[in-house]
Design a protein that fits this description.
Blueprint: H1 2-22, E1 24-32, E2 38-39, E3 44-47, E4 53-55, E5 61-66, E6 69-76, E7 83-89, E8 94-96, E9 99-101, H2 122-131, E10 136-140, H3 141-146, H4 152-156, E11 162-164, E12 170-172, E13 180-184, E14 187-188, E15 209-215, E16 229-235, E17 242-252, E18 259-263, H5 269-272, H6 297-303, E19 312-316, E20 320-333, E21 337-361, E22 368-392, E23 396-418, E24 427-449, E25 456-481, E26 487-490, E27 497-519, E28 525-549, E29 551-554, H7 561-569, E30 573-577, E31 584-602, E32 606-623, E33 634-654, E34 657-668, H8 672-675, E35 679-681, E36 687-689, E37 697-708, E38 715-726, E39 729-736, E40 740-747, E41 750-763, E42 774-788, E43 792-796, E44 802-806, E45 813-814, E46 822-833, E47 839-849, E48 852-855, E49 864-866, E50 869-879, E51 884-891, E52 897-902, E53 916-921, E54 925-933
Parallel strand pairs: 1-8, 1-9, 13-16, 36-40
Antiparallel strand pairs: 1-2, 1-5, 3-4, 3-6, 6-7, 10-15, 11-12, 13-14, 15-16, 17-20, 17-54, 18-19, 20-21, 21-22, 22-23, 23-24, 24-25, 25-26, 25-27, 26-29, 27-28, 28-30, 28-31, 31-32, 32-33, 33-34, 34-37, 35-36, 37-38, 38-41, 39-40, 41-42, 42-45, 42-46, 43-44, 46-47, 47-50, 48-49, 49-52, 50-51, ...
Amino acid sequence: MKFNLKFLLITLFICSISIAQNKGTISGVLTDKETNNEVLPFANVLLKGTNITANTDIDGKYSLTVNPGTYTIIFSFVGYESVEKPVTVKAGETITVNQVLSSGSYTLKDVVVKSTANKEKETALLLDQKNAVVIKQSIGAQEMSRKGVSDVEEGLTKVTGITKVGSRGIFVRGLEDRYNNLLINDLAAPSNSPYSKIVPLDLFPTNIVGVIDVYKTFNPNIYGDFAGGTFNIQTSKPTKNITKINLGAGYTTGNSFKDFLLSGDADSAAGFFGFNGKDRELPSFLGETAGRTTFTTDQALNFVNGDKGFNVSKSKSPLNSSFNFLHAEKFDLSNNRNVSYLLSLNFDNSFAVREGVNRTLQTLGDKYNNDFINTEYRFKTSTSALVGVNYSAERYKLSFNTLYLKTTLNSILDQYGVLSNNGINNNFIRTNQLDKTDYLNAQLLGEYNLTEDKNQTLKGGVSYANTKYGQPDRKFYTGTQESENQINTSYGANNFLRQYLSVDGNVYVSGLLEYNLKFGKEKQNKLTVGYNGNFSKMESSYRFVASYGSAFSSNDINNIDSKIRTDISNGSVYFAESSNATYKVKLNESANAGYANLFWKFADKFELNGGLRVENTIKETYFRTLGSFDDPFKKKTYNNLYVLPSVNLKYLMTETSNIRFAASKTYTKPVVMEAFPISYINADNTSTQGNSLLKNSDNYNVDLKYEIFPTSKEMLAFGVFGKYIDNPIERTFIANATSGTVTTFLNSDNATLYGAEVEFLLGLNRISDKLEHFSFGLNASLMSTKVNVAKTYESQDEDGVVTIKNSIETHQTRSLQGASDWLVNSDLKYEFTLGKDWTNTMSLVYGVFGKRIYAVGTNGQDNTYELPVSQLDFVWGSKISDHFDVKFTADNLINPARQLEFGNNGTVKVDEPSLLANSYKKGVGFSVKVGYTF
């Protein structure tokens, strides 16, 4: 038996050597003429008439092992002309066949405009994910289009571990917006709102985006300020000439063609396109410095004249609408040079009605303090524009991008019910509010090849951004509603109060400079050394104008300005500024870092990406406490030096599977308004108070992942991860006996988070050949979190005095605020054709997340929880011809209630018939978008 086994092994060994010697190898590099002969990854290489195929790797290289003979090689890349080349292979020899591909006269037939052709396709991104050493996922324009995605934020919800939570943005692995960071073309970008850490990603339409990279593990060349994810939006770059227009309309059940209230300035042509707000500006005679100025009679009359007052118009809400325009051209010059430009203009508006309960608890926590039925009318507009100019030569590239974003949200919020447990059931509060943002970001980027072989490169960029956020003339009043149109109230207190909030980011500068050196065998190793940083200046102003007078009554609740003007004329009321010395805050921030990173391939199967980032952050807050308007600003400074190591290790088990490990340290800064020393007041006696004593969180992260790519269109991955967070930042509610419920923010002692993720994308032809046009994708996360609460915390009063107090949190250990124990996203795709050129893709997309803490419980009250929400969408994309395409979307088909619920496991029990704190439904949306390509 031993003899036979040895004989068999020797025979097999000899045969394998013989077979290997009888085969030959075809290898080479594909390059891209459209980018001055840069290497072309993700291209296809096929031996004609056989099943022998390969894809070029990230360096444009390919290799095929074949029997001796004469073959025809086909090189192809979507959007480029295919090239066929004959080749003769001899036994034991390696034949080198390099090829340049170009678009030539090829006409692109895909619906989506590509920034770098196939690099936005799902197959290309899967290959990129497979080849990358860091743990990242990407979603491209093609996939977002297929899934009916109209903006970046919605697109990211298709990535493992990511959920969208209403107006609170993107959650990654259960961590809120504050734990995320945003890059645009590798450069740091500010937020357009002080209430969010990053620009709301639903403002980026997909036609200005090529690829979105999602980093859930740290790498030294990205900023250390993140624990959830860093999103890098790569804006589109044209590869050919195109002009395209899209027009869209949408209907939402319970929202469209319903009674709708709008402020006077929004109910106009200017308001329809988002250009209202001029009539809401702070009266010029009040000047730049706050005070206690009393209005003259004429000034007061002008204050409520025309569209400047409290009147609202009532009409029917129209259909939602959208418009997109894209034009791009590319010009080939001599000596392998080219220049291109892209212009994208986008606009959309939407009308929504939100109706449901809204409740808060008393100081003792057992009874409702407020018990309202809320009806909110929300009219939202968003405008975006991108201008990109690109120049490419043999040794260098230059890109200039200017991005402009503008949003308005006009809202009328009516609250009816019990206010401050006053025993009156017909309290009525109306808040008339406009939120507006303007965002301008200009970027200059460049790459230069120091050597002709491109083994040494320089990469640099700089950007300048200016942001403006405002709530001009936020006005409200409170009274009793005696009938449908009868309102009784009085002047003074919070009645007829008008607020003027502005937060201007006057300067935001970001820059990077990076040197890359390829070295070693076949130049497969790379050393990166670089710098990136940013500096910003921000200034806020929060001023008030109050009314003073006697009783008020009107029998036309939507048109009360005439009564106010009558009362002004007869001296029954007057207006005066009521701001205090805390009205202005200034914030200067900077982050500067140097980093080094080494990519090292060793032992054939291992790839290491490790490095170090040294980052210095400075935060200076200038503020006044209660006192004189002329008091000097007080200054609070945080100066932190972070040493942030990271390691990413990949083991190539086979040609189609990898094991990855990553570990790193990062930090997290609070959102601006979480730490701003101002108190934001609402009409229902609730408020939001920033905590200037908030500390940055320190985050320790570890990931382990196994992934397999059965085919170029399929993927299966399993991963586990863990995080330890020092000083996690969390939202909490504090019941205040004088001012009602206060939303504020605190640092807990520490938190641990660990979990598992699974993701797959598979063709259903594995089940049956009849299902060859179907594919199914799913990603799911299972998490466990634990927070340990510090026994004491720092508190600062209105005079800036800091004291140490005992913790007021109800639970000394609990789950992390904002983290779900589980979440699932999935989609089913069906592709088919009707006729020769009429291609169709149908997708059914589903997502759901588990129950999570919305706000931490204090003073014996349990936590407030956000209940699970299931989202089901249907998308049908149809390309009818070379010129026409149509997309139909039905979203939120299940239409679940969005609910917050009071927990009842504290030492103080809620003694009310319902624990429901907040609830509303969005409605089912149906939209159609028609596109025409010239």
